């Protein structure tokens, strides 16, 4: 994507208008939904890409019986979709609603509301697709569904919001976490969307979602450019810190969810796996995308102080 001239309302206006028009033909919600459930179920296929399992190299995993490994891969699909649903409902939707209900001061006010209401519809469909695809796998595999809500990105965001002292901070927190997530979700969906060796329904549902999210990363970038345009230096520094910090939370291994799954399955040496694997995922997969975003929306240079200091301050805020 080209670098934006953030000072020009027209650049943003033209792009938002173009994206809004494209949505009418390209978005999944505007096209007939394929009958995913008509796709053949193959019990021998994995329900999830093995390369995404955070403990795939751990000795206890490698030594586990195949049947147990297969159940873990079905639950990996469950965790992946539940996390997706939490991102859609608890992170992205509130940011869309902010802009729809009280748009920022901008000459592009109506367009901002237009594209955000489109994204809101898309996310509702994605949530529906995820929950149906999860339940389909639980049914076919005869597995009890996983209930879990403490995803790291969501709890971190809530802690930040609880410690904000001004409304502008709360609003930029909601927008910044959503904007970063909308950029990262394309990377998050990519492996499953491209892995044709997995269960057909899992591959197809993820592929359809990934295509919509490709557009959303542009939509959120241009909306962000418009918002950044009207921010003070202090507000820009705050938004940049939120966006950069989101990557660590987004990429988290979610071992809390895995702990629950391991106890449901009575998985041997589960405690060792949870202890050895830890929180940090391969963040480098995501970092490049966010640095490009920061650059694209005009949050580099222009007299902003160091990002490290701002991120450190945020860390203190979330812990307070
Ligand atoms: Fe989505
Ligand atoms: Fe999205």
Automatic annotation (TrEMBL):
Record SUPFAM superfamilies: Ferritin-like
One MF term in the entry's GO annotations: oxidoreductase activity
Pfam families noted in UniProt: AurF
InterPro entries linked to this entry: AurF/CmlI (IPR025859), Ferritin-like_SF (IPR009078), RNR-like (IPR012348)
Official protein name in the record: Diiron oxygenase
Organism, scientific name: Pseudomonas hamedanensis
Organism lineage: Bacteria, Pseudomonadati, Pseudomonadota, Gammaproteobacteria, Pseudomonadales
């Amino acid at each position: 994507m080209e670098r934006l001239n953030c000072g020009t309302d027209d650049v943003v206006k033209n792009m938002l208008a173009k994206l809004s028009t494209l949505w009418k033909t390209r978005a999944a919600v505007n096209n007939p939904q394929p009958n995913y459930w008509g796709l053949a179920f193959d019990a021998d296929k994995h329900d999830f890409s093995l390369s995404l399992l955070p403990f795939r190299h751990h000795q206890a995993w490698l030594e586990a019986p195949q049947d147990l490994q297969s159940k873990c891969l079905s639950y990996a699909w469950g965790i992946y979709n539940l996390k997706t649903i939490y991102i859609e409902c608890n992170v992205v939707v509130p940011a869309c609603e902010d802009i729809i209900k009280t748009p920022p001061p901008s000459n592009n006010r109506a367009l901002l509301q237009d594209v955000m209401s489109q994204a809101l519809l898309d996310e509702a469909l994605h949530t529906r697709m995820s929950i149906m695809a999860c339940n389909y796998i639980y049914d076919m595999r005869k597995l009890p569904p996983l209930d879990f809500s403490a995803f790291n990105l969501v709890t971190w965001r809530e802690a930040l919001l609880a410690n904000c002292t001004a409304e502008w901070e709360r609003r930029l927190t909601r927008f910044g976490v959503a904007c970063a997530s909308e950029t990262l979700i394309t990377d998050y969906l990519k492996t499953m969307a491209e892995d044709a060796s997995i269960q057909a329904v899992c591959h197809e549902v993820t592929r359809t979602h990934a295509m919509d999210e490709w557009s959303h990363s542009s939509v959120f970038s241009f909306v962000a450019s418009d918002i950044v345009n009207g921010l003070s230096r202090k507000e820009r520094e705050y938004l940049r810190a939120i966006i950069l910090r989101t990557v660590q939370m987004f990429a988290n291994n979610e071992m809390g969810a895995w702990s629950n799954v391991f106890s449901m399955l009575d998985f041997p040496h589960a405690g060792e796996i949870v202890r050895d694997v830890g929180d940090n995922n391969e963040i480098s997969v995501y970092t490049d995308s966010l640095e490009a975003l920061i650059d694209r929306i005009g949050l580099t240079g222009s007299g902003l102080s160091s990002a490290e200091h701002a991120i450190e301050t945020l860390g203190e805020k979330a812990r307070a």
